[in-house]
TrEMBL record:
Name listed for the protein in its UniProt record: Ribonuclease BN, tRNA processing enzyme
Organism: Actinoplanes philippinensis
Any one GO MF annotation of this record: 3'-tRNA processing endoribonuclease activity
SUPFAM superfamilies xref list: Metallo-hydrolase/oxidoreductase
Domain called Metallo-beta-lactamase: residue spans: 18-196
Pfam families: Lactamase_B_2
Superkingdom assignment: Bacteria
SMART domains, sorted: Lactamase_B
Length: 248
């Protein structure tokens, strides 16, 4: 299984990165997890933008799904003809949300996407075994656990601390975890993690490696987030960058 970071900026595109988007590949199958603002650009930089086999949107905040609207043009109007409808696993309402953002008439996009509503549980996407569960964020949001060939990748999506996050990440080889907030500040509750909270979750879930993402460079110091995460988790910690690849 290979993870490629396409975008990792939290909440809005940063100076060096698009918003959240992660390409997970196994056995030639390509699953795109989240498709945030600006990430269609990165998808072209690191791969053939037409070669996506399925999309999973963890929630319907703009920074995790807006380029699924832009991508309609790519698939519907390809010079060789329309590309096959793509499975999209997402919270209910994704079809309407993408259609509304794509055109003022809200014309359906079901020629481009076939939508499957997410619910907590385990199911296959291509060769990947995917488990999703609701995490602690103001809208319906799913954390993700992906298993393939005995290896485990877990992704927090956006969340404040919660038990579901620990279950999804339990024993993961790679734990891709958001760290939006700085420790020591009066952060809003039930929204995001601090670096320290990401580190605590990594320790409790006993993961092999912590990859921090969804930092907001304009609002938080990367150094302080890494310091707090490292103080709470003894394993390897790094902040992901666009274009970074991890084989597991
Ligand atoms: Zn976000
Ligand atoms: Zn969000």
């Amino acid at each position: 299984m290979r993870l490629t970071v396409l975008g990792c900026a939290g909440s809005f595109p940063g100076p060096e990165s698009a918003c959240s988007a992660y390409l997970v590949e196994a056995e030639g199958f390509r699953l795109l997890i989240d498709f945030g603002s600006g990430s269609l650009s990165a998808l072209q930089r690191y791969s053939d933008m037409r070669r996506v086999d399925a999309i999973l949107l963890t929630h319907l905040h703009c920074d995790h799904m807006l380029d699924a609207c832009t991508y309609v043009v790519v698939r519907r109007y390809d010079p060789s003809g329309p590309l096959p409808a793509l499975p999209v696993y997402a919270p209910l309402g994704a079809a309407e949300r993408i259609a509304a953002a794509y055109s003022t008439e809200g014309e359906p996009v079901d020629d481009v996407y076939t939508f499957y509503g997410l619910q907590p549980g385990t199911f296959p996407i291509g060769p990947l075994q995917v488990t999703v569960d609701r995490v602690n964020h103001p809208v319906e949001t799913y954390g993700v656990r992906i298993e393939h060939g005995g290896r485990v990748l877990a992704y927090s999506s956006d969340t404040a601390p919660c038990e579901a996050l620990l279950r999804l990440a339990a024993g993961a080889d790679l734990f891709l975890c958001e760290a939006s907030y700085q420790d020591g500040l009066a952060n809003p509750p039930d929204l995001h993690l601090t670096g320290g909270e990401a580190g605590e979750a990594a320790t409790k879930a006993d993961v092999g490696r912590l990859l921090l993402t969804h930092l907001v460079p304009a609002w938080a110091s990367e150094a302080s987030i890494v310091e707090a995460a490292t103080a709470a988790y003894a394993g390897p910690v790094e902040v992901v960058r666009p274009g970074a690849r991890y084989d597991l």
